[in-house]
Design brief:
Layout lengths: L2 H9 L3 E6 L9 E5 L4 E6 L3 H13 L7 E5 L2 E5 L9 H11 L13 E3 L2 E3 L7 H10 L8 H17 L7 E3 L8 E4 L2 E5 L5 E3 L2 H10 L4 H7 L5 H20 L4 H10 L3
Antiparallel strand pairs: 1-2, 2-3, 3-5, 4-5, 6-7, 8-11, 9-10
Length: 264
């Protein structure tokens, strides 16, 4: 049975229309118009059940996320959230304070995840530098240029001196770039397309500031720990390595520049 037929059976209404939604390089969501007037977003694939669980976890913190209608058997159905792109940094800071509230959990997540063909290992670990070294940096070593891999290995050995051993565990969005943040009328409407796990909240800040430039007041509201700016290049290395593997050598300079900034 196609996902469309399953969609109709689950929602109790026939499909009247639909269109692919714009997204990132790995996006694959469809806006579905139902005959009864409702709208929903559908995604299908082997990992959408895990995405649905992440969206529910985000919503449980009080941060806005699309309501999940169904998240089983390779089909995810959720609310469609309207967005006009008018940014509201204050509301995003408020939502991140909720999302990043302290949790009594080990770093990592109950399931691994993936960006396309790139696996995201989420093995539970009590030591944060070890998690970052093993699950976010060294995991790429065999898939990239050996000279970069050697520099990553050297950096990884130094992480206990560069990162806090036990930062407050927080639920992370995990892929917090601007395309996954929906603003409407100057307020945050929803966080979408997560790659969530428990970790150091500065990881989300690092991802956000790769492409966006929030105002000074945004960072003041977050009340980040001393030294956070110096740690951002370490956390940005992970998405840069993912992009290097997905899209090739156009990201090689970005990776090597980040390593050079860190002194490696």
């Amino acid at each position: 049975m196609s996902w469309q037929h399953r969609f109709e059976a689950i929602t109790g209404s026939t499909i009247a229309g639909g269109r692919k939604l714009q997204g990132g390089d790995l996006g694959g969501a469809t806006l579905v118009d139902l005959a009864d007037g409702r709208q929903a977003v559908a995604k299908s694939g082997p990992l959408v059940t895990r995405e649905g669980a992440m969206l529910k976890a985000i919503a449980e913190t009080g941060a806005p996320a699309p309501r999940v209608w169904h998240g089983e058997d390779d089909l995810l159905i959720m609310d469609y959230v309207d967005a006009d792109g008018v940014k509201g940094w204050e509301s995003l800071a408020d939502a991140l304070a909720q999302l990043h509230a302290p949790r009594d959990e080990l770093y990592g997540w109950e399931n691994d995840y993936a960006f396309g063909t790139i696996s995201i290992a989420n093995s539970r670990t009590e030591n944060w530098p070890r998690f970052w070294a093993e699950c976010r940096l060294l995991c790429h070593a065999e898939k990239i240029d050996s000279s970069i891999a050697r520099r990553l290995e050297t950096l990884s050995k130094s992480l206990p001196d560069l990162l806090p051993a036990y930062p407050t565990p927080s639920l992370l969005h995990g892929d917090l770039w601007g395309g996954n943040i929906l603003f409407h009328q100057g307020k945050l409407a929803a966080l979408i397309d997560p790659a969530s796990y428990v970790g150091h909240r500065e990881v989300d800040v690092a991802m956000l500031t790769m492409f966006d430039h929030p105002p000074h007041e945004f960072f003041e509201a977050l009340e980040l720990e001393e030294g956070w700016r110096e740690r951002l290049p370490i956390y940005r290395l992970w998405p840069l390595l993912v992009h290097l593997r997905l899209f090739g050598d156009t990201y090689k300079n970005s990776v090597t520049n980040a390593l050079r900034t860190l002194g490696f």
